[in-house]
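Q: Structure tokens for this one, please.
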Amino acid sequence: MENRMVDLEGETVVFLKVRPGNVDRAVKDLRRNESVRMAQPTLGPYDVVVRGNFRDDAALRAFVKEVEGKEYADGCEARPSFRQWTREKAIDAPLVGWTLIQARNPESAMKGLQNIAAVSRVYEMPGQFNLIASVQAKDPPALMDTLTKEVHKLEGVRRTETLMGFREPEER
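A: Here is the predicted structure, written as tokens:
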């Protein structure tokens, strides 16, 4: 069987579980990789969220294999997007929620997410959660309000799971 590479358009989101006491080390190490655009600590089932650009699936698989081989790593899940949207004007808020969304109609939900002021990025991908939205907020109550009063009310949104993190100064 022929092993063909698939070109990847746009960014891939990678979720990483890290062994206790190693989050800072992992973030610093990941940020040194030329394909990584952002590595950020989060709270939830994963410890670090990474945004990266990988030319093809082989490069992404090599990155995942490399990361999983690190002493600090305890698991890695890559989610390449086949469509994404980024707000042109950056939102300046210290808190970010990485919200995984299960939507009946991802295209419609993606359009709805673009109308929520606190949403800065949306990625569409295959899998149980077919959208990931980056939601910015000034504090946890503001994040919760955006999620419950806006994201959860979008037509077709069936389920969400949110990881919470804090933006690093160089991400602003």
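A few notes: The mean pLDDT is 89. Strands lie at 11-18, 36-43, 48-53, 73-80, 83-86, 95-103, 119-124, 131-137, 157-166.
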